[in-house]
Amino acid sequence: MANEVKVPTLGESVTEATIGEWLKQPGDAVALDEPVASLETDKVAVEVPSPIAGVMGEHKFAVGDTVEVGTVIASIEEGTASAGPEETRPRETAPKKEDEPLTSAKAVEQDLEQLPSGADAADITTMSPAVRRAVLEHGVDPTRIRGTGKDGRLTKEDVLAAARAKTAAPAPSTSAPAPSSKAVSADKGDRREERVKMTRMRQTIAKRLKSAQEEAALLTTFNDCDMSAVIAAREQYKDLFAKKHDIKLGFMSFFAKAACLALKDIPAANARIEGDEIVYHDYVDISVAVSAPNGLVVPVVRNVDRLSFAEIELAIAEYGKKAKDGALTMEDMSGGTFTISNGGVFGSLMSTPIINPPQSAVLGLHRIEDRPVVVDGEIVIRPMMYLALSYDHRLIDGREAVTALKIIKEAIEDPMRMLIDL
């Protein structure tokens, strides 16, 4: 008896998704709740579990097809996979010797040498979250790896094998190259273009950011911040903090608590426009921008104004792990009343972040560097950071924005303010 595999509920206001990868092929054995397909939504990748244990049946849609919630995308037959048909079924890749695995370093090296430019290259749009994560972690070029999955798509094993081959490859010779009769072509080189379809998430990011620029009256105010006090506090208490809470004391919890002070005094920075009304919040849900294998995501730390430093750090660490594993859910990223984006971890000195609609403000953090500043009439060297607050001028006046950023600056430079609520 065949059981239907349907597109599950994907979250509030999300009605459709794109099939990113089939994790099980027709004839494969499937366990109960084992993922059989990966769907890409506007925000996250969602795995579709098997409703029963059995044998994978027909795929009713191909990779790249758009499907709606509740749509039947495949079937699963009850029973167990038959060894006979599986053994006689034609393989999509050339057979290998039993003592030479398909994805061995040697095989990958041969593929890299024989792969024509642009031919059979991995289609990035069909990568599963696990494959994308492996590509990022090992720093390999997916377009130079021959995929062994269905239709030539990459598998995680292909990426790992390519990484091993890259590590085992001999270092290039440092001796001067011999003159070549083809040196005349060195100026031009091999030039090629590659067209890659945007993922659903990237398309959504593009639309939302462009919409924010068109609809909101964006403006950014800047300030600089002396990080000496926060750095000293972390240095003094980091060991005790880690021992008691089993988590490192980072900068983000300081800025999150400082933001709570600013948003309490400037409610407009924690509000949103809805039609011809302004919606104010008596709570602070902070969207924290983190990097994931398939793009930038903003999971939400809720009720930050009621959380301790340790609870904030634990929540951010958990979201970071889930983002790396491709396990964030729609619920993790829904809502949010204010955003903090830390471009400093990538080396940014200054930027003008774009708000995350329908929020009205976003705080941008940047790298810390020693700079000369004047303190009590003397020039001293201090660890300084530029802060940026982008805001929707339709809702937030310039005076309010500058005041909010000044409150954050003062709280970071004197952390005692966060303790006594100043």
Q: What do these coordinates show?
A:
- Strands 9, 12, 15, 16, 17, 18 and 19 form a seven-stranded mixed sheet that branches. The chain has a four-stranded antiparallel sheet with strand order 1-8-6-3, with no helix packed on it. A four-stranded antiparallel sheet has the order 5-4-2-7, with no helix packed on it.
- The radius of gyration is 26 Å and the shape is globular.
- 31% of the residues lie in helices and 23% in strands.
- With 422 residues, it is α+β, with helices and mostly antiparallel strands.
- The protein starts with a strand and ends with a helix.
- The protein contains eleven helices and 19 strands.
Shape: globular
C-alpha termini separation: 67 Å
Following the backbone from N to C, one meets helices and strands in this order, namely EEEEEEEEHHHHHEHHEEEEEEHHEEEEHH
Quote the CATH topology of the largest domain.
Chloramphenicol Acetyltransferase
- Helix share, percent: 25-40%
How many individual domains? Answer: 3
Give average pLDDT, whole number.
79
Assembly context of the chains: single chain
CATH homologous superfamily descriptor of the largest domain: Chloramphenicol acetyltransferase-like domain
- Cα-atom Rg, whole angstroms? 26 Å
- The CATH architecture category of the largest domain equals 2-Layer Sandwich
Strand portion:
15-25%
Low-confidence region ranges: 83-123, 178-185
Sheet with most strands: 7 strands, mixed
Q: What structural class is derived from the secondary structure elements?
A: alpha+beta
- Number of E-state strands: 19
